[in-house]
Amino acid sequence: MKNINYSFSEKEVIIQDENLKFDNLRIIKEKGMGANGIVFECFDIVLKRPVALKIWIPRKGRAYPDAKRFEAEIQKLASIQDHESIVKIHYANSHNKFFYAIMEYVEGEVLASWLSKENNTKTKLKVAQRIIRGMDYSHYQNVYHGDLHAQNIIVKSDWASAGRTVKILDFGTSIFSPESSKLRASYLMSQTLAKLFDSEYLELLHPQILEFVHEENWMKVRNKYKNQNFITPESVLACFEVLIEFITAKLEHLGKISDLDTLLSDLCLFLVKSPFLNFEKLIPFLREYANENQIYYFIDQFWRWTNFGGGVDPIHLMSEEFKELLVSMPGTNNAVEAYLHINETLSVNSEQYLIWRDFYKKYISYLQLKSLLV
User: Fold this and answer.
1) What is the pLDDT of residue 186?
2) How far apart are CA 266 and CA 24, in angstroms?
3) Is residue 173 domain-resident?
4) Are the CB atoms for 118 and 125 separated by under 8 Å?
C-alpha cells in the first residue's frame, strides 16, 4: 500500500498537506484505499442521498496525481455508464491539484465476503452472469478492467429479490497499456469468475482459462504470454457464459425431460456462439444424460449451425464480414475438427470473434431462444 499521509473530518480531506473541502458532503467514514485512490462513504446534503467520494492519489515518485491520466480514466468511465452493473459517476473535478469523483454509493458486500457465505450454485451462476454482461458491455466500449478481483465487485445480500444488484468498481488500472491490460483482464476475469463456479465444472473451461485459474503468479503469466497469443477477454467471458448454460441444463433439465434432442440442439447453438469450452471434456459431461445417438445428434447440430444449407440459411442476418469469416474457415467433413479450428481461430482474435458472435446473437434472438438460467 502506498505511503500517503491523509486525514479527514466531516467536511474535508487533508492529503499530503493539501486541504480538500466538500461543502455539500458529509464525510462519514473511509471505505478503503486502492492502487490509485481513497474512497469515502459520504452523504450528499443537497440531494439527500448517500454517495461515494473517490480521491485519486499520486503515482509512486510523484507529489500529485497526473491530470492527463485522471482525465483519460474518468472519460473512459463516463463512456460505460449505461449498464446497470457498472457503478455510476455523478460528478468529477479537481481541487488543490488533487482529483476526485462523486459516485454512486453501493450498499452490499464485496464478492469475496459474499462468496464465503453463499453455497447455492444457481445463485452464484446468476451473479456470474451479471458480471459477464457488465464486462461484455465495457469491452464493447473498448474499456478493459485490469483489476477485476473479488474486492472490486459488490453484491447485495438481498440480490435475489431486487434488480441491479451486482456492481463492478474501480476500472482505473485498466485504462493504460491496452495490450497488457487485455492479458491481465483475461487472467483476472478467469480467476474471479471461476470462484463463482463449483469446482467440478471447471474442467470444461478452455485449457488456457484453466491455466489462468490455477496460476497464482501474475508475473509468470505476463512473461509467458508477452510475445504469444492468449485467449482474449471477450473469449474468456464467452466461455464462462456458455458454461452457465450447460450447468443450468444439467441442474434443471438433463435427466428430467423427455425431449432431450431439442435441448441438445439449443445447447449446441449456444456453444456455436461461444465455441470455447473444452470439447474433449464436454462430451463425457453430456454422456451422463445422453446416449450415443444423442451425442452424435449434438455433434451433427454443430455442423448444421456452422454450415447451414437446406433452405434454412438466415442470409438476412449475415453481415458481409461474417460471410467472409465463414468462408475463410477451412473445409472439413468432421464436426469436431471444425469446432477445434473455430475455437483456436476465434479465441485469440477479438475482432473476428465479435463478428462471429454478433451474427449468432442475432440468430439466437431470431429463433427466440433465451438463456436457460432464469
Assistant:
1) 95
2) 54
3) yes
4) no
Cell of 174: 485498466
How far apart are alpha carbons 165 and 154 in whole angstroms?
Answer: 8
Q: φ, ψ for residue 204 (rounded to 5)?
A: -80, -10
Q: Which domain holds residue 50?
A: 6-104
Residue 94, strand partner residues: 99
Q: What is the DSSP letter of 100?
A: E
Note whether 272 and 186 are same-domain residues: yes
**Burial environment of residue 315 by CB neighbours within 10 A (0 to 12, 13 to 18, 19 or more):** exposed
- In a shared domain, residues 193 and 268: yes
pLDDT for the residue numbered 163: 46
Beta-carbon contacts of 302 under 8 Å, excluding residues fewer than 6 positions away, are 268, 271, 272, 335, 338, 339
**Same domain as 357, residue 232:** yes
- Count of domains observed in the chain: 2
pLDDT at 179: 60
Q: How many helices (H) and strands (E) does the chain have?
A: 13, 11
Residue at a domain's end among 40, 72, 104: 104
DSSP 3-14: ---EEE-SSEEE
Q: Reduce the DSSP state of residue 261 to 3 states and report it.
A: helix
Compute mean pLDDT per 10 residues along the chain, 374 residues long, and list them.
79 88 95 84 96 87 75 83 89 89 90 91 93 92 85 76 71 57 92 96 97 96 93 97 97 85 94 96 93 93 78 79 90 87 96 96 93 90
Q: What is the pLDDT of residue 2?
A: 57
**Amino acid code (one letter) for 152:** N
CB atoms inside a 10 Å sphere around CB 291: 10
Q: Are residues 94 and 175 in the same domain?
A: no
Residue 155 Cα distances to 28, 87, 121, 164, 190, angstroms: 21, 12, 15, 10, 19
Residue finishing a domain among 104, 122, 145: 104
pLDDT at 371: 94
> In the chain, helix, strand, coil percent, each to 5?
50, 15, 35
